[in-house]
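re: ur question from yesterday

yeah so i grabbed the chain u mentioned. its 689 aa long if i counted rite. heres the sequnce exactly as i have it in my notes:
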Amino acid sequence: MMRNREEAAAKARELVAKMTIEEKASQLKYDAPAIPRLGIPAYNWWNEVLHGVARAGTATVFPQAIGLAAIFDEDFQEEIASAISREARAKYNGQSAHGDRDIYKGLTVWSPNINIFRDPRWGRGHETYGEDPYLTTRLGIRFIKGLQGDGKYLKVAACSKHFAVHSGPEALRHEFNAVANPKDMVETYLTAFEETVKEAEVESVMGAYNRVNGEPACGSETLLKKTLREKWGFRGHVVSDCWAVRDFHENHKVTDTAEESAALALKNGCDLNCGNTYLHMLQALKQGLVTEEQITTACERLFTTRYLLGLFDENCEYNRIPVTDADTDENDALALKAAEKSMVLLENDGTLPLDPAKIKTIAVIGPNADSIPALEGNYNGTSSRYVTFLEGIRAYCKARGIRVLYSLGSHLFKDRTSNLAQADDRLAEAAMYAETADVTIACVGLDAGLEGEEGDTGNEYFSGDKNDLLIPESQRKLLKTLEKSAKKLVTVIAAGSSLNVPEGNAKLFAWYPGQAGGTALAEILFGEKNPGGHLPLTFYKDVKDLPAFEDYSMKNRTYRYFTGDVLYPFGFGLSYTTWKVVSAKKDGNTITATVENTGKTDGETVLQVYVAADSPDAPAHPRLCGFRRVFVKAGASETVAIPLDKWTDTVVNKDGERIPAGKLTFFVGVSQPDEKSVQMCGVRPVVIE
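ran it thru and got these structure tokens back, copy pasting raw so excuse formatting
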């Protein structure tokens, strides 16, 4: 089987041995040229599939990564990734048959992003699986397994990024030195990377822009050589972040020339350059900064990946996937299922679910109501099947004779929707419709134009980071107007990070829910589906409660170490039904728990296991060490087995060493065991001493 790395590596060595040094060096750049005399076609290594095949035309758009994290379901995560990789193969097969080997069309996909969302200001946080190392690890592993498949060849080659200690500020990333102590490195920042290398056997790892404790991440001997390859045994290839190697001399100032930068990256194990600094590699060779052997090694690693993908085998099993296997009805149904599972009910005074028999008129108001960007997030594909929030609600209501009134209400962030109008030019319309309607649905929040990557898509604040936890002032004015005008106000927030939005009789956090977001929203609002999403990150009240954005210490960050009062805790999510954890017992590395649906509505919840260790090296609060999403019919109960984190009985000391944890206490519930979580969700966890 070609999935055998030794066989692929042998074939790569044999092929690379036939290349000239110029040809070898040419292959170390993301847009590798063809070598016709050896029958090697051009290949572009740069592709993205964060939550669907991205930037290459029509593809299924699933909920943004942070929304997938809110589902807390490993099996479902792998199912989605498997669907994505099939679409990637379908599109690759069709496009390469037409000689199109451009960017975003290859089989080496630079996903998932397994950085830790340690600060809510970070614009790229919605690309991650949240703030918890264990949740990130499990979802990252299963996403990679779904992408890479279990066939003779890799279905696609996944990539764990950005290695390492990378989570803002975006505006400083090209020059920033992230300083993290040994405990935080092992306990928080490196955990998911280590496990995706060891358990998921991820094929590639991407470095970060920033320095880590003084070393540029894409040229770090500590990270790339000593940790990744020597300590963890990584055997795939390493790719730089895009134009990150150029930062070595231009911004980090750790080298003086492009040749020195290329040499530093290559010598420390960065095989592939996203950017153009490796154009200077032959000059670096001439200057004695690198050896031909080092160039050869990098080239062999890259061609090993190409062989593992079956790119030189016309009988590769994935070559038979037809172009019609992208953008299918089945994947649209899967995207809908994901959107339904991801949305989190934050507050509810009984307004939800809505009873269609009691509603004659509904107002749908807000800049995200009829917005496709509010569905997409970033690093997204283009769906042929978008259903906006307005469209989903309108379709549901039309079938039941309910009138829908719509107003934009406000611009997403500007003070007017028309340049010639006075400020707040849609507030009167919003108010008059809210006054008329039996219930008002306010669709507010952000989109990837307001939170995202530095310079990626022209973010409003350029860096893509947030300054605070408020929605833009235009929308705050809108909500205050609706709070006065609406008989009942349901606030639907589309965003990828924590926000403090006080208005609403009920609040639903929709994330960026993908192409079927509108259909999912309507089903949840009217009780066709019971919300079962849980927060994969803490919702703070104010950024003033947090350390400086540039401070990478975990002290007073995330639910494990934060000491203040929060808006909504990590792991929190309400339901239309009520739950009770009946019993729980530990047997080895598994906890078996029974949960009862004590209400009148079928639904799903997430059983969560937290562990507290009697050790001075333990986190300040119990940490997540197991989770399992479970469906339970009204009045029934289910018993499930929850596997525990393999590191459950350890803690990390100040020197970054894993040591025995001492006496452990487990908490099994549908939230964290803290009093605020218990009070908000109404379920007290079972304690196992």
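noticed a couple things. The two ends are 48 Å apart (CA to CA). also Residues 33 and 42 are 5 Å apart (CA to CA).
anyway ttyl
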